[in-house]
Amino acid sequence: MNKKLYSILISCVTVIITSCSDLDVPPLNIIGDEQIFTTDQTVEIYMSRLYNDLPMWMLNGRGNALGARNTNNYTGETTGKGITELEKDLNPWWQYDFIRNVNYFLEVFPTYQSNFGNAQEKINAYMGEAYFIRAFYYFAMVKRYGGVPIVDRILKYPEMSEEELTKPRSSEEACYDFILNDLNEAIRLLPTESTARYGLSLGRVNRYIAYGMKARVALYAASIAKYGNASQYAGTQWANILGVPANRAQGYYQAAYLAADSTKYGGYELMDEGADKAANFANVFSYDADKTSKETMFARRWLTTHNINYAGNFAPYQVSTAYSSDAQPYLEAVENFEDIDGNPITINTGTDENPIYYESPLDAFANAEPRMKGSIILPMSQYVGQEIEIRKGIIVSGHTPSDALGNPEWFLTSGTIPLSDVNKYNDMYVQGKSGIGVGNGCYTGFLVRKWLDPTRTPNDWDGTGVLTPWIEMRYAEMLLIKAETAVELATYGINTYVQEGVNCVNQLRERAGSNKRFTTATLTIDKVRKERRMEFYYEDQTYWDFRRWRTAHLEQTGGYRHVIWPIYVWDTQKYYLKRTEDLRRNYPAYDQLWYYNPIPQDALNRNKLIIPNPNI
User: Fold this and answer.
1) Cα 99 to Cα 395: distance, rounded to the nearest angstrom
2) What is the dihedral of CA 411, 417, 420, 425, to 10 degrees?
3) Domain RagB/SusD: where (predicted)?
4) Domains of the chain as residue ranges with CATH
């Protein structure tokens, strides 16, 4: 199919699936159902639209890295360069137009099955994909808003009455059950392998991806049942709409464990290749590894003509010809990792009056777990064959931190033209080639390593050359769902799965390069949660974990976060790592009302039966 025809059909499908008109004579420029649901090619176009609308985090690339709606900026995993304050309505997603599109497919496509002859497996696969996608859409809304109106068929105007067209919010419990039922249908209908249609199989769902999604949804529902305190809404207008009864937690945990365990039959496994554990972990997220890695379960991939260049925007300044350093980890995120023996990482910096000196900033992280080094670029670490120079400045000869800091003549920090000779001191760039203070340089002392592809060249990072996929689901998540549900079920007296949960965590720690292992006696829920934070750093998981555990208000108590300034002291020929606050922004304390997003005002205006969430 040529590109021109493909574009025309996409436009026509868009018109059809977003129109509410019911005209006796269809316009000549619109393709009808009998054309759309006739061939694989036209059905694929419709299906690609449904996939395209899946609400994955990295939808608009650089905008999410910079924006106040980046979940990682809430958790302190990173700070975006352009953020001035965090938004309380984080990532709103109320998309019944998308749900109508998938409902239309589920309702209309079966009436055209005769066009596909005896190809029942193909028909089932299409239907299974649609059920999966609808579940994905609804889960995106329910985890934000609690109970929402359940619409599982096409609403037709003006044929239907106002009572039929306007629906109240269902209970949060009913919504999770509806989503899980859709996923059960997807599991029943989908093939065991992602079907290669249109020459492509990457990025399409299969039965085991549906199992993985079921595990994710059931775990979220279980957490809300156990930690959401639904009883607080008793006697209010939000009774049932918000929260899940506590007596449902055990059943949801059990369903999550069994679904996650089923994914092992899909041929997935952890990527663990080579002796360099840090490089191996980083390679899990690279473009080339993703094409062959058995760890990736479900990912959004890009065509060369329609890529999304978030990787290029995260690259260190010195290796990119375009934007850079848009996402920068805070010190708190670095210290959330562990050393190779499982102990907390704490950077020993000393004080201005009594500084601790390092030959290289890397020496302060010498014993860090390799997984951290595969997730975060440390000052002076190697990347694409270069030492990534991150400095705050140089203390000139004859002075020390105690007398030089704050004096611009003794503490050089000029970096307006970072790679110009005018910003050198004795042939050393004052702030380094990617340093603290330059326009597109680093501020916190650290950069994100995840999602960067070391096979790319600087010319690739001009906004068009990086194809790194967004991995929405990987096998490591299944292992940690099994571990978390095993430990949670033990609190209900079900110890059947604890040993397997321990095995799952220890597999990840082995791959991470950690020497510490757990036993059934030492693995606790807090240990599993810590493992999730380390494993899923900067993967849009931590924020939603904080919400379902109801710990965000404990983790995010407000105030300033911290950075590290590597300062080169000339007379010692060593570095002083100054720990200091990021005074550019004071983060708000997390209000417990934020556990549910506000219902969009336009939705409230259109449907008077919808009860708004508590005011935030």
Assistant:
1) 60
2) 0
3) 304-614
4) 3-55+93-267+596-606 (1.25.40.390)
Beta-bridge partner residues of 340? none
**Could you give the CA distance from residue 205 to residue 211 in angstroms, rounded to a whole number?**
10
Q: And the tokens for 330?
A: 């805070």
Check: CB of residue 253 under 8 Å from CB of residue 488.
yes
Among residues 471, 506, 472, the alpha carbon closest in space to that of 486 is found at: 506
Strands 411-412 and 393-395: antiparallel
Amino acid at 443: Y
How does strand 393-395 pair with strand 562-569? Answer: parallel
- Give the residue from 594, 492, 529 showing the smallest Cα distance to 242: 594
Q: Nearest-CA neighbor of 464 among 61, 82, 69?
A: 61
Contact 413, 582 (CB under 8 A): no
Query: Tell me, what amino acid is at 254?
Result: Q
SS3 327: strand
Average pLDDT, 10 consecutive residues per value, the chain (616 residues)? 34 38 41 82 92 78 52 83 61 93 96 88 95 99 98 86 87 99 99 68 90 99 98 96 98 99 97 93 79 86 64 78 78 97 94 98 97 97 93 96 95 68 83 81 90 73 66 97 99 98 99 98 99 97 97 92 97 98 86 94 95 88
d(CA 592, CA 552): 8
How far apart, in whole angstroms, are the C-alpha atoms of residue 70 and residue 77? Answer: 10
Whole-angstrom CA distances from 614 to 91, 92, 369 are 17, 16, 42
Provide the whole-model pTM. Answer: 0.92
Phi, psi of 408 (to 5 degrees): -65, -15
Contact, 312 vs 509, CB < 8 A?
no
Provide the residue type at 138 as one letter.
Y
The CA distances from residue 233 to 279, 552, 614, in Å, are: 48, 20, 10
Compute the Cα dihedral for 487, 56, 374, 205 and give only its sign.
positive
Percentages helix, strand, coil for the chain (3-state, rounded to 5) are: 45, 10, 45
CB 553 within 8 A of CB 590: yes
Q: Tell me how far apart the alpha carbons of residues 240 and 253 are, in angstroms, rounded to a whole number.
A: 20
Amino acid letter, residue 194: S
Closest to 450 measured CA to CA, from 68, 81, 58: 58
Residue 26: strand, helix, or coil? coil
Query: What is the residue whose two structure tokens read 């365990």?
Result: 261
Which of 211, 223, 137 lies closest to 175, judged by CA? 137
- Residue 218 to residue 488: CA distance in whole angstroms: 13
pLDDT confidence of residue 301: 79
Bridge partners, residue 368, by sequence? 339
Phi, psi for 461 (deg, rounded to 5):
-90, 40
Supply the pLDDT for residue 33.
80
| Residues 325, 441 contacting (CB under 8 angstroms) | yes
